[in-house]
Write a structure and sequence with these properties.
By secondary structure, the chain is mostly helical. The chain has helices at 48-51, 58-74, 88-97, 100-103, 111-120, 129-142, 157-166. It contains 7 helices and no strands.
Length: 170
């Protein structure tokens, strides 16, 4: 039981079971982009690149985070209901064909910027975590009572970077 009132509205996402280094520890060079990989993770939350068999990087972690936030806030993703939810090809088609506006429907408008930014990242590109954090703060400031989006005010860009460094994804 949580007795501290400040933690009652906190959400902690922790899953390092599939964590991989994105840089070679000996050379500090980014891993190369390769293909023909098996999908890693849960189908509903896997990035498009993962589903297509491409190697994953920080951008894929952020795409999965976006899906997690959408699912947590709305209770569903466009591909998690109906018969297609276990069909990998149908889920991939939906992820590729849906617009960002459709995907983020029901969420604060700034969240579209988060998803668009994540989609714009290159394989080796370092995400601007401060920018992403600022978008999440904008979302938490525009939330109405009808959208139970979590508050991101206690999450700092530095804590994201430290968590990323710990998993090799900085």
């Amino acid at each position: 039981m949580i007795r501290d009132n400040t933690l009652q509205s906190s959400l902690f996402l922790i899953d390092f079971g599939l964590a991989q280094l994105y840089r070679n520890p000996a050379t500090c060079l980014h891993i190369p982009s390769t293909t023909n990989h098996s999908m890693i993770g849960t189908l509903a939350f896997a990035s498009v690149n993962s589903q297509q068999g491409n190697s994953q990087s920080r951008r894929d972690d952020l795409e999965s985070l976006a899906y997690t936030i959408i699912y947590s806030a709305l209770g569903d993703l466009p591909w998690t209901s109906g018969n297609a939810r276990k069909n990998e090809k149908a889920v991939l088609h939906k992820k590729i064909s849906i617009t960002v506006e459709e995907l983020c429907e029901g969420l604060p408008a700034p969240f579209c910027k988060f998803v668009n930014y994540v989609h714009s990242l290159g394989f080796k590109e370092k995400p601007d975590y401060q920018y992403l954090h600022s978008i999440l703060l904008q979302c938490s400031e525009t939330v109405t009572e009808t959208v139970p989006l979590y508050t991101f005010s206690d999450v700092s860009a530095e804590s994201v970077d430290h968590a990323s460094i710990a998993t090799g994804r900085a």
